[in-house]
UniProtKB/TrEMBL annotation:
Organism: Aythya fuligula (Tufted duck)
Molecular function in Gene Ontology: 4-hydroxybenzoate polyprenyltransferase activity
Protein name: 4-hydroxybenzoate polyprenyltransferase, mitochondrial
Membrane topology summary: Multi-pass membrane protein
Gene Ontology CC annotations of this record: mitochondrial inner membrane
The gene coding this protein: COQ2
Amino acid sequence: MRGPSGSASAGGKMAALLWRLGRAPCRLRAARTALPAAAAAVWPPPFRPAAAAAVPPDPRRPLSFSAAELVRAAPGRLQPYLRLMRLHQPAGTWLLYLPCTWSIALAAPPGSLPHWPTLALFGAGAVLMRGAGCTINDMWDRDYDKKVARTASRPLAAGEISTFQSFVFLGGQLSLALCVLLCLNYYSIVLGAASLTLVVSYPLMKRITYWPQLVLGLTFNWGALLGWSAIRGSCDWSVCLPLYLAGVMWTLVYDTIYAHQDKRDDVLIGVKSTALQFKEDTKRWLSGFSMAMLVGLCVAGMNCNQTFPYYSAVAAVGAHLAHQIYTLDIDKPEDCWKKFASNRTVGVLLFVGIVLGNLCKRQESKTVQEPLESR
């Protein structure tokens, strides 16, 4: 039988055991906190175990449907071909497509919206022909592209695909573009086929003349002729020609800005451009081209009886171009790219103005007919 001293001793041991058990979670938390720091001190960074390194949270990337994201999401073997046709940089496709939309909208009957199936058809054609043009350009320029920082990563220059593979890919794009062209009337088929000479020869112009941007303008704005003929069956040159020339002037504006990105590399490798031709007088030349564009748009509008919304859009285009030129820094490539890409807004503004102006034609014709019927 235990005495009082034995009972006190047992009670003390039980209290000490309970105190230690209560302290265990605190010690465990302290050990967990100190372990990464201790491991980081013992192991040098190259040999540090993965468990010792702090693992940042992995936030889920937001879902994006941009052209660049879609190309990155494509299968690896397909990506070089998509980049070869610049599918990840849709600004050029827009600049090719928008003159088509102007012409299609101008050719619509008074009071009507543009013919949406034709707009969709020309959209597909713009993607294919811009891709074909970029493929041809890279085939001609693969040796030059290797020497320019901005273009050295292009698939042909980087060796991701061969010249033969790009040639086969070009044939596929042109075949699909021909299918689109064959959906149009005979006049438009012949007119569209006539542009191939410009498409093939443009990449050579930078070796020959300081005005390759002019040849690009003649090429990129062919849709200003083709869109009208696709709707009306032939070109009304009193409308199509000033619209086409306005588009050419627009291309001289935005592609001269674009060329200023590469002017230092162009000097080193012997490539010519309007950026090198104009130098510090660039803004004066761009202002002249912009004025010529606005005059061409006004003439085209007058010859097809456009209304107030159209001329309001032309004024907005003029203001946008003036802002571009005034704020342009030709010595900052990032600013040049920003101004170049903003020209999609110019084209969309004009398209919206044409559509609204055409819808107003019907209202004006009704107000003219009502007094005549009342007599």
